[in-house]
Design a protein that fits this description.
fatty acid 2-hydroxylase activity; 17 helices; Fatty acid 2-hydroxylase; 388 residues; binds zinc ion; alpha+beta; single chain; 6% strand; elongated; binds protoporphyrin IX containing FE; Flavocytochrome B2, Chain A, domain 1
Length: 388
């Protein structure tokens, strides 16, 4: 919406009509938002929003049950479609209050809405009509904050359609390309081990035969090794902090991972395109062959590749799936959504938060509803201490 256009006005009856999964509107004060597209993506579940359709959700945005992040407040602004018509609207409590005071006082009366910054696509530092790849490097020290303010829109990296196509992939291309290779190599490893010629040398003279039945174990070990690799690459490569004056490193960061933080629900760039992944997979294979004993290295590599496929699919699911509350997947989704929206310097594990523990990057647990309502004893100690 351009600043010169006056906002569309809706009557309360009109707003109330949009209360289904197919069309869901909510209010923040008198501002109207069409959140239909977001329902399925909401971490708290679609029911929490749907049950409040047509109503003012400002109170819920500040919790309980959850105090929403600054980014969640920004996010909602993308769905702004107009205002509730004060003349035609019924006398809601909010409106009655607002009519008593002057225009300036009105703004102060709704701190939960106005105190949060709003995203304005027109002033969002980049020109969205032009490809982003050559613009982001110029953001300099503003890049870090910009890239961690997510938006709900597809991104265009390059002018060339070919280049654009190379950087995109649908989720099912990952298992389609890599799983036949995993299956073939698994069969190859198993039959090679069955020949009982693969040995691990414990000393220069003493060696043990690697039996074919140890293959599942080696595969699982390879998958476990992947989880460590996943953590390291996400933390140390994808989340490297490019120097503000280095145009090329900022661009590289954006292409590798920054773009995913800027547009976390761009489905075409959620998994790594197999074409671009191939040389990396080849490099990892070489690394395994020089690091681990012959015969065993291939088994571990297959496990690692399998772990990678599982990781990419889980990551896709965490963005688009709606796992059941209380399930492992739900906990993973909550963890990953918080990595995107709130704690970008923590929560680097995707398929497991295991490696966040030894590296001290675990996202702190949110206090439960009861804990926020009834202050824990430590706060009372703190309170008494402060009084003295
Ligand atoms: C339509 C506007 C809304 C938007 C854009 C929104 C956005 C978000 C986002 C981005 C998160 C992830 C954490 C964060 O960034 O704070 C989140 C979590 C959550 N939201 Fe909302 N939300 C909305 C409305 C609501 C409403 C109306 C409720 C409840 C009455 C609600 C309850 C929750 C809960 C309980 C969580 C945390 C779930 C967990 O950690 O397991 N949200 N929301
Ligand atoms: Zn990340
Ligand atoms: Zn993600």
């Amino acid at each position: 919406m351009t600043p010169t256009m006056s906002p569309r006005l809706f009557s309360q009856k009109e707003v109330a009509q949009h209360c289904t999964k197919d069309s869901c509107w909510i209010l923040l004060g008198t501002r109207v938002y069409d959140v239909t597209k977001f329902l399925r993506l909401h971490l708290g579940g679609e029911a929490l929003i749907l049950s409040r359709s047509g109503k003012d959700v400002s109170r819920f945005m500040d919790g309980p049950p959850h105090r929403h992040s600054e980014n969640a407040w920004r996010w909602i602004e993308q769905y702004y479609i107009g205002d509730m018509d004060r003349n035609r609207a019924a006398e809601t409590e909010t409106l009655r209050k607002r009519r008593k005071t002057s225009e300036n006082a009105e703004e102060k009366e709704q701190p939960s809405v106005t105190s949060h910054s709003r995203v304005d696509p027109e002033t969002d530092l980049v020109d969205w009509q032009k490809p982003l790849a050559w613009q982001v490097g110029h953001l300099g020290e503003k890049y870090d904050a910009w890239v961690h303010q997510p938006v709900d829109r597809p991104l265009r990296f390059f002018q060339s359609s070919l280049m654009e196509a190379i950087t995109k992939s649908t989720w099912y291309m990952v298992p389609l390309v890599w799983m036949p290779l995993v299956l073939y190599l698994s069969w190859y490893c198993y039959t090679s081990l069955a020949e009982e010629k693969t040995r691990i040398f414990l000393t220069s003279e003493y060696s043990v035969v690697v039996h074919q039945y140890s293959f599942p174990l080696l595969l699982l070990l390879g998958m476990f090794m992947w989880t460590f690799f996943e953590y390291c690459i996400h933390r140390f490569v994808f989340h490297m902090r490019p120097p503000a004056n280095n145009y090329y490193l900022i661009t590289l960061h954006f292409l590798l991972h920054g773009q995913h933080h800027k547009s976390p629900f761009d489905g075409s760039r959620l998994v790594f395109p197999p074409g671009l992944a191939s040389p990396i997979v080849g490099g990892v294979y070489l690394f395994f062959t020089v690091t681990f004993p012959e015969g065993v290295s291939l088994c571990l590599f297959v496990g690692g590749l399998c772990g990678y496929v599982v990781y990419d699919l889980i990551h896709y699911y965490l963005h688009y799936g709606s796992p059941q509350k209380g399930s492992y997947m739900y906990r993973l989704k909550a963890y990953h959504v918080k990595h995107h929206f709130v704690h970008q310097r923590a929560g680097f594990g995707i398929t497991t938060s295991l490696w966040d523990h030894p590296f001290n990057t675990v996202i702190p647990e949110e206090p439960s509803e009861q804990e926020t309502q009834h202050s824990p004893p430590s706060s009372w100690f703190h309170f008494l201490f402060c009084l003295q």
